[in-house]
Amino acid sequence: MTRAFGLVCIAISCVGIGFTGSIAEGTIDPLTAVYVANKEGSVSAFTMSRATGALTAVLDSPYPAGTSPQWIAVDPTNTFVYVTNCGSDTCDRAGSVFVYAIDQATGGLSISSARFTDGRGSIFMSIDPSGRFAYVANHGSNTISAFSICG
């Protein structure tokens, strides 16, 4: 299931379910984690109760995510969270992608890497179902950046 919530994007990480969009549902066994891109430059992490849907903030959350995080994607193995950053409040500068490793016990994040895209205003992102490639839509330059994901 995918839905967009205005300026905030949420990704619920999944096991065995490929997804595109700002929300994907599933579980990391035994943890369900929710990640939120905050417009003020961070990513918040929560655990979610499967019984009630209640969210609990993960220790040390939120995590820095550049100037203007826009979109979240979780790889098919639930190992990494990818966050696009459009580069400025107006999304008119060089964009980037932040990569965070997921702590499988807590749902917490630690920065793994970051790199610039080939365009301006990197907003949307999708990871192919094999988890080997990532694609970023650069709104400000009307281009797509393609990346190989090292396993």
Would you mind describing this structure in some detail?
By secondary structure, the chain is mainly beta. It has a single domain, classed as Methylamine Dehydrogenase, Chain H (7 Propeller). The chain has no helices and twelve strands. It has strands at residues 9-12, 33-38, 42-48, 55-57, 63-64, 69-74, 80-85, 94-102, 109-120, 122-127, 133-138, 143-148. Strands 1, 2, 3, 4 and 5 form a five-stranded antiparallel sheet that branches. β8 and β9 (109-120) form a beta hairpin. The two termini are 27 Å apart. The model is unreliable at 1-30 (pLDDT under 50).
Our estimate of the beta-strand percent is over 45%
Number of helices: 0
For CATH, the homologous superfamily is named as YVTN repeat-like/Quinoprotein amine dehydrogenase
Order of helices and strands: EEEEEEEEEEEE
Low-pLDDT segments, ≥5 res: 1-30
Q: Per CATH, which architecture?
A: 7 Propeller
Strands, count: 12
Task: Describe the structure using short key phrases.
globular; single chain; Methylamine Dehydrogenase, Chain H; mainly beta; 48% strand; 12 strands; 151 residues
Structural topology:
Layout: E1 9-12, E2 33-38, E3 42-48, E4 55-57, E5 63-64, E6 69-74, E7 80-85, E8 94-102, E9 109-120, E10 122-127, E11 133-138, E12 143-148
Antiparallel strand pairs: 1-2, 2-3, 3-4, 3-5, 6-7, 7-8, 8-9, 10-11, 11-12
Quick overview:
Helices cover 0% and strands 48% of the residues. With 151 residues, the chain is an all-beta fold.
